[in-house]
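Case study B.
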Amino acid sequence: MTLVSAAEAATAGGAFLVLAIIVPVVGALTAFICGGRWTERIALASMPIGLAIVIAILVALQRGGAPLVYLLGAWSPPLGIALRADGLSAVMMTVTAAVVCAVGIFARADFRTPEGSSEARAPFAFWILLLAVWGALNTVFLGGDLFTLYVALELLTFAAVPLVSLDGRAETLQAALRYLLFALLGSLLYLVGTALIYGAYGTLDIVLLSGLVYKEPATVVAAALMTVGLLAKTALFPLHLWLPLAHAGAPAAASAVLSALVVKGSFFIVVRLWFDVMPGLPGPAAAQLIAALGAGAILFGSVVALTQRRLKLLIAYSTLAQIGYLFLMFPLAFDPATTKLQSSSALAGGMVQAMSHATAKAAMFMAAGLIYAELGHDRIAGLAGIGRALPMSVLAFALGGIALIGVPPSGAYLAKTVLLEAASDTEQWWWGGVIQAGGVFTSSYVVLVLAHAFVPADKPVTLRVLMPRFGTAVALSLAVCSLLLGLVPWQKYLPVSAENESNLLTLPALLSSLWPIAAGAVLAILMGRGRLQRSGVPAVVAAIIDPARRAALAPARGLVRIDGTLRQWPAAGLALLGAAIMFGVAIIAGR
Amino acid sequence: MSVAVFGLCGAAAVGLGLYGLITHPQLLRKILAFNLLGAGVFLVFGVVAHRGAAAGFGGDPVPQALVITGMVVAFAATALAVALLLRLFQATGSATWRADAASQASDGPAGT
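Model:
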């Protein structure tokens, strides 16, 4: 044990970190061996255990006041591998555990092994893959060196890809292959970066690297390649070709996992890379660039979402826009005095946004899945009357949407206030504008769907099947969870000040969150697909709306066309290489 | 000298792999190009191992360990990709992205 004392010692709660990875992995393996009905039982049994471990980590972190560390085999870095849990890892693991458990309960309706057969392919695969995604994500959040993160990232991809094609239809198989190949391209770029960094510094440990990294050619190339590789896996615009069809084609429970959690894995590694490994390297130009891609994602994702015919595709495009929102924090966390990215309130805002999106989007996909199952289709134009026929599913969708728009006390509202404050503190008013526009865009597509849902139906809505009530209950509780995330005392885990949270429930806060909804409604009328404005609108109003709508539709068509081009494989490949070069140049130029 | 040759070969393999992965419409070729790209990356790891070795050692063992792990990952990725490709071929009778699936998502412009 003398080796340990040299650099870093394992902390008291360290064993929990190993358990957090081992429990889902052992669950997945035993479920695979036992097969049949046991897969579901083992998966559901692992969930409370995993949740308890995460809570234990939260408590240990709060008591110790310092990151938890576990050294594998008691060898300290650079020779050994460390698992570390700081505040960021802990909160992300908690949200992951909560969403996985919710999806587990929700999926019992869809992925039950049918009576009379000993084993069915889709349920067998789903439960094992769900546990595998969970184990891989925990490894991503805990991994202490860049190569462990690579392996975790690959495990995550391998678990996520088959979730896309669970039903085995040709379209979903194609979407899965597209996802797999693009993700593999991204992870190889990450691996090249790892090799270059090892060659330059002789270690891959995050803590050790943070003190070593300086600006030299190999590091710049490595940083650019790793960043772009991870962005490809996160599906940040313009590298999003795989996301819409993969997330929209998967079964509802799988979509919830993919959209809520899987993309957050590679996002989390970008945060680790920029904030922990090389906070001084990216510089202002690269931070502006990554946020500019985020702004592009918000614009394209939201506008294309408004033009979708199907609810699940609309939600998938909304994920695209929300991913863009996550990247707006990078320039806001940049401190010009030290030319470093600071773990400031902007970082906290970004992470809270990631968590509130995870819960809200899982709820929205579940609600959409319930609507799809009970209605037999998810065409937005055919949703008329479901507000009356399926009130609870629509309520879950609405609450998830409202949480996403950022109505207090939702997590998205807290994130928005924190980010806006950071934007005004650092005098970057343009990002403040993008953040506000993001809120307007989000409300536009939520309002569009709700408007269709509450239009009275011409003929009574006939339901194909009745889904069990617990599915709706789970979706509702996740949405409520997202709506209350702003009230969680984050200060213990994230660098956010208590005063931001204290004035969440005031009347001005509520009123200030209402104008984006009104603006979004206008946007939905102008750009949205469908003929909402036709029903019972006076001729005078129609005379004003129609020319405005024609004017708004022209740019929307343009954006849809560009999006279609960017989602062609060769265009996306070139965009990937172009982005890598741009990040390299931005890092060199930024000083 | 030989290190430079290995490095250049690695870079060339990475370039060829990237080219193939981006341009070929046939999925099997894309998978092969991915493997070529991976092989190039592993060669780069070999170069790193040689340059990072302490005096008197032939090579640094850590990158070799990383390469072995990387190969296992690449093998698993290839197996998964080929399995998906086979299922796709059984379902559609084609292993090419001829009609690119991208057009399915955007149902044309809005409001028309």
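Confidence is low (pLDDT under 50) at residues 1-6 of chain A. The remaining cases will be described in the next quarterly update.
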